[in-house]
Amino acid sequence: MSYGDTTILHGIDLDIHRGEIFALLGPNGAGKTTTVEILEGFRQCSAGEVRVLGADPARGDDAWRGRIGLVLQYWRDHRRWQVAELLTHFATYYPNPRDPAELLALVGLTKQAGRQVEHLSGGQRRRLDVALAIVGRPELLFLDEPTTGFDPEARRDFHDLIERLARDEGVTILLTTHDLVEAERLADRIAMLVNGRIGVQGTPTELSRRAAAQAEVRWTAADGTARTERTADPSRLVWELHQHTGGPIADLEVRRPTLEDTYLHMVHREAKRGADGAEAGAGAPEGEERAA
Ligand SMILES: Nc1ncnc2c1ncn2[C@@H]1O[C@H](COP(=O)(O)OP(=O)(O)OP(=O)(O)O)[C@@H](O)[C@H]1O
Ligand SMILES: [Mg+2]
């Protein structure tokens, strides 16, 4: 995908399977929204091949569009509509819509049903976006940073809703997020996009293990000093510590490498590669991440 001389996406290669929750992660400007908008048919890519539900999104007809639900990163229409009216109106576009009142209850907006969209809070507005996206019972759901502005409870409710849609209704979900805990919890597979390239792809567990094979064990020693040790076998270390102290280990904490470790490692590596590439006058080479 290019705009004039500027290439935004460099040969993205992605397969997302039916019923899967797939998360696209990456820093601001990485190309997540661009990718999602190409898949939704909102932007036409400058080269390559895209198939979504068997069709080229740039040529998707109304029937194709009716099988898809969207939460866009930004949109500013419908400000003066009332919440329930807008949802009821959207429901008329689809052959087998969800019940608007039930849907409002599901996203926690029953009390705001009569309120104008422009008078909703940021998080309430986002909940409405989610309701509008699923009112038509889509087979495929695109969610571009759906939980921006959600309070912790709304976030947890949203996660439950997404899991239910995927597990019970078989909805395929493509999600972008900056919340790595959210990605780890929801996604079956994750791709990390940096500077328009996919750096790594895999299950959350696979990706978490990539940054470091060793776990970090922290505890407070008998003399009161805080101790940290890295080990590939944390259970053995804890067992040894327990033998040694002959009792409980104070402030014991075992931390496995997280998705965040892999993410930060990859972003730093790509930034360095970009800087080196600029110095050498060469583009960043493609390649799979290797375990550090
Ligand atoms: N219409 C456009 N013309 C030129 N460049 C564009 C256009 N739209 C987006 N870009 C550029 O494409 C790059 C990728 O943008 P995109 O919105 O896809 O990033 P993103 O990964 O969604 O970021 P964020 O996390 O901030 O939402 C950015 O550098 C952006 O400035
Ligand atoms: Mg974006």
From TrEMBL:
The protein's superkingdom reads Bacteria
The alphabetical list of record keywords is: Antibiotic resistance, ATP-binding, Nucleotide-binding, Transport
Its membrane topology is listed as:
Peripheral membrane protein
Signal peptide per UniProt? none
Q: PROSITE patterns attached here? A: ABC_TRANSPORTER_1, ABC_TRANSPORTER_2
* GO BP annotations listed: response to antibiotic
**Localisation:** Cell membrane
State the residue spans of region: Disordered: 272-292
| Gene Ontology molecular function, alphabetical | ATP binding; ATP hydrolysis activity
Gene Ontology cellular-component terms listed: plasma membrane
Residue limits of the ABC transporter domain?
Answer: 1-220
**Pfam families, per database record:** ABC_tran
Q: Which family does it belong to?
A: Belongs to the ABC transporter superfamily.
Name this protein carries in UniProt: ABC transporter ATP-binding protein
